[in-house]
Amino acid sequence: MLPVIAIVGRPNVGKSTLFNRLTRSRDALVADFPGLTRDRQYGFGKVGPVPYIVIDTGGLAGAREGVDQLMEQQTLKALEEADRVVFLVDAREGLTAADEHVAGLVRRRDVPVTLAVNKGEGLQSDVAAGEFHALGLGEPVVISAAHGDRITGMMDGVLAGFEAEPESEAAAEGIDVAVIGRPNVGKSTLINRLLGEERLVAFDQPGTTRDSVRVPFSRDGRDYTLIDTAGVRRRARVHESVEKFSVVKALQAMEEAAVVIAVVDAREGITEQDVSLMGLAVERGRAIIIAINKWDGLAGDQRRHVRDELDRRLPFMDFAPHYFISALHGTGVGDLLASVDAVYAAAWRDLPTPDLTRAVHAAVEAHPPPLVRGRRIRLRFAHQGGRNPPVIVIHGNQTDRLPGSYKRYLVNHLRKTFDLDGTPIRLSFRTGDNPYKGRRNKLTPRQQRRRKRLLKHVRR
Within the chain, what is the greatest distance between any pair of CA atoms? Predict the structure, then answer.
């Protein structure tokens, strides 16, 4: 499982800035006033020796009422989920009573803590860290989240003891499928329907909020493992209407799985949490299917509204198959496993270099790239750089100037050409000078013949 890192601290010490730095995103709102982040933010960490999940929490001022009390509850939940804690303080403002309050909360949780002194740019490390030794949380690490100073070194220490999982290959034993979604959308009902039995009630054992249930089964000679992110529930409680929900659990399940089934509730519509979960699945490169549950009994105008919401709120998911189902009654569920097979095959498809190059040339011929300062961007050849998801490396000149709209055009063209529905596609561009530029008169006849053969192969 991916380790979980929680960032905690009082307001306005730079937690969201550090979160954005670690996830290489701008997902957490950043502004120069305290208390902006009130709910937990989740993301996949990309700075450090191993992958991980990072949680950004609201700032704790030590107040015992109102919003501050709610923010403290959110932080305590994040600490329960965390394997490591980064406790952030402010070098410019020095040690405060609010820092000491947060330190008291952290000490109650038996988890390794890194004390990070932020906003240390331009300051001598020993001066910036000096008074924070009084917190008794080990040697402070002086960083700058805004400028990126010493962040990598800090994360090397935070993640010490965790090892990166080897790159996964196509699993001969079957397909791991994570079923994700908000509470009470019908994830476990869907899994039981796929299994044809109430399999989940047999798991009569306690589990933490970060456990997932792995349910292996076979269908038509193929093996699958369904990962239920609703977690382990005791037999006496399986009839409760509201499932216990953990975002961490959903993200870890995504990491384990080859395919994700995202379940949404047609009667509640597409929520921000639905959008966030699916966005994270795409970020991790997972093949994905959207199952719109509780479709039965909806009036025509309600169904039209849901379809409009899918188009409006999930434009980045236009590559994913949509199924309108009833997990309770079984309507439409029979098509899901065939779709799992199809999107899994697309994610692992081999794409030969000559075929990719021809496809890119066909796309260019149908719709040439724009001119940049009077020069045409040229895409010369392409090859596959990875699978699950497919990575396509395109070589040419001025590729760094290719606009986003043209990249989306290329993705759509390649998806249609190679039947890559259901999986994200990642493009990687390489710009390189012509190695023969200015050397034509210096080439031997044999080198000139070789150059002609290479150019002929590329144009083909």
Answer: 84
Query: Which helix (H) or strand (E) segment is 117 a member of?
Result: strand 113-118
Burial class (CB in 10 A: 0-12, 13-18, 19+), 27: middle
**By the 8 A CB rule, do 306 and 266 touch?**
yes
What structural domains and CATH numbers belong to the chain? 4-158 (3.40.50.300), 175-347 (3.40.50.300), 353-454 (3.30.300.20)
Exposed (0-12), middle (13-18) or buried (19+): which is 33, by Cβ within 10 Å? exposed
pLDDT digits (tens, 9 = 90+) for 349-403: 999 999 999 999 999 999 999 888 788 889 999 999 999 999 999 999 988 889 9
| Contact between residue 288 and residue 301 where contact means Cβ atoms under 8 Å apart | no
Structure tokens belonging to residue 168 = 């996964």
Tokens of 209: 């909020």
Q: Which residues contact 134 (CB under 8 A, 6 or more apart)?
A: 95
User: Which residue from 73, 62, 78, 65 is spatially nearest to 15, judged by alpha carbons?
Assistant: 78
In sequence order, what DSSP letters do the residues of 192-255 get, joined into one string?
A: HHHHTS--GGG--S---TT--EEEEEEETTEEEEEEETT----GGGTT-SS----HHHHHHHHH
